Amino acid sequence: MFAGSGISAPKSEANEAYDSYSGLDVKDTWVLVFRFLPEDVSPEVRQHLSRFSNLRYKAMAAREKGALGLIVTSGPRSKVKEQLIRMTFDASLAGSGVAALSITDELASKIVAAGSKTLEQLQAELDSGKQVAGFIVPGVSVQASIDILHEKKKGRNVLARLDSGLTNPGAVMIGAHIDHLGDGAGGNSLAKEEEKGKPHYGADDNASGTASMLEIAQYLTDRKAKGQLTPKRDVMFAAWSGEELGLIGSTHFAQSFPDGKGRAQLTPEIIAYLNLDMVGRLDKNLILQGVGSSSIWPKEIERRNAVIGLPLVTQNESYLPTDATAFYIKKVPILSAFTGAHEDYHSPRDTADKLNYEGTQKIARLMGLIAESLVASDQAPDYKEMEKPKDVQAGGRRVYLGTIPDFGQGSDVVGIKLSGVQKGGPAEQAGIRAGDVIVELAGKTVANIYDYQFAMQGLKVGQAVKIVVQRGTERVELTITPGSRD
User: Fold this and answer.
1) pLDDT for 263-305, tens place per residue?
2) Could you give the domains of the chain?
3) DSSP labels for 180-194?
């Protein structure tokens, strides 16, 4: 069976339902679909279809219709770098419940050759937004053998405790993830073509955080041994496994501590969690996230930083893409240190020679002083509930602009401030620079990262759009042509 784009999207307030399976009975058949969503539809339609267009959704739709399996082709109009889809896993590592194959356009063209239209003609019709009726592909049978050895491996968190000798409840916990990407084969690598398969060293992400956590452990232990610290509560230290796969190690701990019963909150057993993730590239500012999780943080940060003098940007957001989130959702106040994104992120170029060691030492000292203050106090930080940001689906992530957001932008900045652009990427070619603030993309106002991600979902690879940046006091209008990640 040919089922067009393989998308089943329900009707929304602004968009009609889109069902590639309308009128088709695919029970006990193999279904051939295109890899991406229609390319030439309006940005509004792209945004509607985007969340239903990733391959996991397409496999799920085929399974729910009773198909034996899914066959995916990119299509000649998609202009992909690699026609065959690489085997990758998302954080869930769960199967889709249906067999799936990736084939070349050449083979797909042969499969549909018995029909009245070529593969390119079918894709062109679908790209226009027309819901092309699916059809039986006559005279074609499929025999496939799929062998996947799903190896289960055990990640190990490494934990230690500095015992106060008291029975006071409520430990302070300090953590950093110890895992990285290996050779990048797991799917999260941003290596360039010539770098693929090479070791991803992870010097900043997250050897810098792990080393800082160990330095804090040494500092507090030495202070206690010398009688310079009289702890009123225990300190727990953690090197988390599986962060890159979806916060697996920290989540497992948070869900099972202290008695394996999966409590709704970790307080009062843990009264605060301090996190160090990518703290090795201090340039302009140290970013402290999670400040909104407790009312004590602003004054505490100011007081401890007075003797260090780090340039700081504080952010209230507490739902973060790092291990701290596993604790925040369990009602624990968090504080997470981060020196910002860079173009070497998740690539073999994240090496030790590029670290700012003096800056990292100062960050470890600051977080150590904050930890020491918490440990020496009878008072536990209060917990403040924050509204969780609306989920922005990632189905449109094929589009690539090559921008590097400045995660340290202040709360007074409206838009997306950039710390840089990737060399040779669409943003650089468009004339966008480090320090620019994106305020509009493809006719849509950009006030924050969520606006930016939403606008990105409406873009088409290779189709130029207007982008507006604030450059100092000047509002600059440029044209950018999105590239493709695939």
Assistant:
1) 889 999 999 999 999 999 999 899 999 999 999 999 999 999 9
2) 8-127 (3.50.30), 158-375 (3.40.630.10), 399-484 (2.30.42.10)
3) --TTSTTTT----GG
